[in-house]
Amino acid sequence: MKVPIRTTVNGTEYWCTDDKKTLFVPVGEQPLFEVTESPTTMLHKGETVKPLDEPVINLDGMTGTQLREFAAENNIEVPGNLKKVDAIRDYIEEQLAADAE
Fold this sequence. Notes:
By secondary structure, the protein is of the alpha+beta class. The chain has two domains: 2-42, no CATH class; 64-100, no CATH class. 26% of the residues lie in helices and 18% in strands. It has two helices and three strands, in the order E-E-E-H-H. It has helices at residues 64-73, 85-100, and strands at residues 2-7, 11-16, 21-26. A three-stranded antiparallel beta sheet has the order 1-2-3, with no helix packed on it. Strand 1 (2-7) and strand 2 (11-16) form a beta hairpin. Helix 1 (64-73) runs parallel beside helix 2 (85-100).
């Protein structure tokens, strides 16, 4: 049984209960295995798994261009005076945090 455990900007990780290891599927690719969305057999007292919330966003390692593209895709307008990658990343993180509230 393969269960989704985490989604990031780069792809989705699945837990394989048979092999006891994680499997990674990059963004844009389909898993080459059957995915179990609500595995009641892995839980206590017949509970169900809540669906994955929003994907985890990892801005570390992105270039300035990638950060600006990410911002545009998420309707975040990055001020033109921000030139350093760290400043752009901090600004985007602040905007995402403000939107989450």
